[in-house]
């Protein structure tokens, strides 16, 4: 287990989390400035047999706190001093006064400093009670440099040369995904992360693993997931949709009720969305559905606002405005059921030039989870409409 202690949740901390996630490493993050909490954190981390401790913040302060926590003496590291003088010369900045240099160059006994490249704070490292300790500046560039050149090699030396591949799957629960992954050879390391029916599968192969073996594992994965597999890279459903529609020269419109703009927003988050998204309409009320999408009010009265017929009418009415594909969503996210219909019931309409198809779903979860599942499903079905 890797323990991360930070003074603030900064870009440096986010960078470390991203890197550890990519290595499938287990870690805990604590963000605090409370001195008592910091001391307790360090004592617990070291005594619990943690693999390593990473303190992100002011290196001088981190060094002093670590030394005080474990009653260690401090020494003045001449290497850090020479590195700071060299940095100041190259950057053409003034050398810090001696009282500042004292804080920058002091380190706990047996610790050492790394050379810095982006400032006067030199990262510091050492070992205490068989636990690796890294004291890292709260600077994104410096943190990335220290991680790539030192931390990664120290913590993941055994991972050097590993081949990792990411696949994205939609429409299955985490339990279902793991069940299907059992079809792969046991020697293939796999990890699954599922959120709102969207799953990221990471397959890891040992160094020098044959290409034939990897190819066979990919074939088994494709066979196991079939149409649920929508990407062979770490990208979102929205990124996949934009990429697909743009490559085929098609446009997409969305008519949203229960999702309240979530689908359109996720598309706009992707660069290049302007060539794909024709329009987005949040028709939340019955009046809006009728006036914006041309639905007859008596039609809504007859079938109900959450119905297959209304979803079909919404998609059909929207596509008349000019897009190649139109998607509509109407449903009940809760917290209470409506007109005897269950919470989570959603109808998603997909209209193309040739046909209009409506899909019935009953999602499970809280209000926002249901809305996210509906938005994700709509994007997936829009892509499916182009790739039949």
Separation, N- and C-terminal Cα atoms: 45 Å
| Fraction of residues in β-strands | 15-25%
| Overall morphology | elongated
What class, by secondary structure content? alpha/beta
Helix content: 40-55%
Give the tally of β-strands: 17
- Mind summarizing the main beta sheet? 6 strands, mixed
How does this model look, in words?
This protein is of the alpha/beta class and 388 residues long. Helix content is 42%, strand content 24%. It contains 14 helices and 17 strands. The chain has helices at 11-22, 35-47, 59-69, 78-91, 98-105, 140-155, 174-181, 211-225, 237-248, 262-268, 286-293, 297-303, 308-319, 367-386; strands at residues 2-6, 27-31, 52-57, 74-76, 106-108, 112-113, 124-128, 131-137, 163-170, 189-195, 198-205, 229-231, 252-256, 277-282, 325-331, 345-351, 356-362. A six-stranded mixed sheet has the order 2-1-3-8-7-6, sandwiched between helices. Strand 13 (252-256), helix 10 and strand 14 (277-282) form a beta-alpha-beta unit. Helix 1 packs parallel to helix 6 (140-155) and helix 9 runs parallel beside helix 14. The chain is elongated and about 80 Å long.
Distinctive features:
42% helix, 14 helices, five-stranded mixed sheet, elongated, 388 residues, alpha/beta, single chain, six-stranded mixed sheet
């Amino acid at each position: 287990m890797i323990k991360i202690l930070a003074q603030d949740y900064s870009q440096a901390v986010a960078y470390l989390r991203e890197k550890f996630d990519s290595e499938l490493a287990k870690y805990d993050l604590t963000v605090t400035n409370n001195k008592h909490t910091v001391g307790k954190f360090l004592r617990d981390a070291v005594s619990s047999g943690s693999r390593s401790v990473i303190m992100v913040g002011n290196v001088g302060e981190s060094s002093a706190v670590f030394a005080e926590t474990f009653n260690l003496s401090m020494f003045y590291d001449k290497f850090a001093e020479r590195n700071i003088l060299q940095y100041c010369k190259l950057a053409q900045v003034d050398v810090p006064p001696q009282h500042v240099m004292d804080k920058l160059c002091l380190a706990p006994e047996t610790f050492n400093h790394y050379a810095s490249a982006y400032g006067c704070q030199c990262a510091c490292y050492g070992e205490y009670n068989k636990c690796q300790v890294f004291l890292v500046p709260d600077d994104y560039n410096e943190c990335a440099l220290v991680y790539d050149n030192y931390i990664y090699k120290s913590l993941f030396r055994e991972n050097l040369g590993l081949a990792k591949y990411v696949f994205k799957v939609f429409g299955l629960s985490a339990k279902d995904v793991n069940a299907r992954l059992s079809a792969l050879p046991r020697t293939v390391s796999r990890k699954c992360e599922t959120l709102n029916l969207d799953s990221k599968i990471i397959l890891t192969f040992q160094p020098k693993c044959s290409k034939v073996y990897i190819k066979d594992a990919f074939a088994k994965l494709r066979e196991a997931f079939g149409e649920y597999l929508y990407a062979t890279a770490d990208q979102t459903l929205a990124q996949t949709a934009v990429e697909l529609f743009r490559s085929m020269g098609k446009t997409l419109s969305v008519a949203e009720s229960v999702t309240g703009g979530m689908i359109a927003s996720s598309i706009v988050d992707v660069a290049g969305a302007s060539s794909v998204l024709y329009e987005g309409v949040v028709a939340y009320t019955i009046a809006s559905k009728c006036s914006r999408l041309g639905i007859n009010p008596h039609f809504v009265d007859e079938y109900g606002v959450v119905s297959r017929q209304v979803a079909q009418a919404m998609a059909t009415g929207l596509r008349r405005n000019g897009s190649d594909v139109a998607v509509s969503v109407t449903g009940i996210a809760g917290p209470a059921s409506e007109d005897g219909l269950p919470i989570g019931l959603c109808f998603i309409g997909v209209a193309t030039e040739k046909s209009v198809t409506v899909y019935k779903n009953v999602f499970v979860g809280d209000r926002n989870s249901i809305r996210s599942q509906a938005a994700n499903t709509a994007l997936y079905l829009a892509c499916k409409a182009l790739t039949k």
